[in-house]
Amino acid sequence: MFHRNNLLRRGLIFGLAFCFSLMTQATWAAVTSSQFNLGGFLNSASPASFDLTALVSYAATHPGSQKNVTLSNGDVYTGVSLSAFLGSYLKTDPTVPKNDILRDYVVATGTDGYKAVFSLAEMNASFGNHNDIIAYKLNGANLTGSGFARIVAPDDVKAGRWVSNLASLQVGHIDYTPAAGGVSAQFSVNGQVANALTYDLTSLAAALPAHTVTVNTPPLTGASFTGVSLWDLLNLSGIVTNPAIKNDILGKYVVATGSDGYQAIFALGELSPNFGNISVLVAYADGAGNSLGNKGFAELVVPGDEVKGGRYIANLTSLTVISAVPLPGSVMFMISGLAALGFGSRRKTA
Fold this sequence. Notes:
By secondary structure, the protein is α+β, with helices and mostly antiparallel strands. It has two domains: 4-175 and 325-346, Sulfite Oxidase, Chain A, domain 2 (Alpha-Beta Complex), CATH 3.90.420; 187-323, Oxidoreductase, molybdopterin-binding domain (Sulfite Oxidase, Chain A, domain 2, Alpha-Beta Complex). The chain has eight helices and 19 strands. The chain starts with a helix and ends in an 11-residue tail after the last helix. Residues 1-29 form the signal peptide. Keywords: Membrane, Signal, Transmembrane, Transmembrane helix.
């Protein structure tokens, strides 16, 4: 069985860094960014930073990476695909037997410390397929008032994950721990929640109103499932957030784990009705009310995922909520880069 303590230890490390992040957000004001740092789970060829010239050059030398996002008011943002950009430098974990990218996420941070998490799977064409971009032009002109680059997430209901004055992109990865597998009979909701809870078939079915969904994408087109909303289930345990931090929910993700150690990350911003608003079901029966058989008593179902059903987690054993903030070393690297921009001279006064 998957060692939940690994995730909890990671959560503790992130918690310590979280305190550091609170200090930085409370102390610094936003400045206009002229570069962003790139770090984390990346290969040795990845550059340490990008400015406007480098970002435009990337688009020119990587065919298909340049993307446009047209807003309802007619404004057009131009930039590079966040998925393609990170994919150019992403490290591969040789220990993961399948769908390594499902364990990856990125933390986008602005010069004021505002941050948002994206799972790499939510942007990947084989899974969520969202057109999130690193924008550097608006209506054909360089950006003004939001730094040289900003994250634009066009599918979000609210623009909470549009990170202005982009200062840092830090890629994270959760380690793979092989497990024995087998048919699951219960799973836990744990991590950064007020009340860790354990569910079996009876308690899951009684926890929330049932929903039935029909999948309209391959490879399960036409299949129906009955279960409860993943977002609502996490909220039953009380996701721990800091009210002093704007949209703190956007700095967190949940790791869904199966009995064989197979895992997928979902950014809470992807799940939240205020932002990504995707539908993910914790299914406990098919559409006709029959059990899921060798998939265990519960399976994550993601009806909107394209092409592959990689984020369908059978034999669910845990849902772990984690704060995704840059590790201390990465934070210090980000600070050093911003200090070069005169960041330290723009501190808030009490």
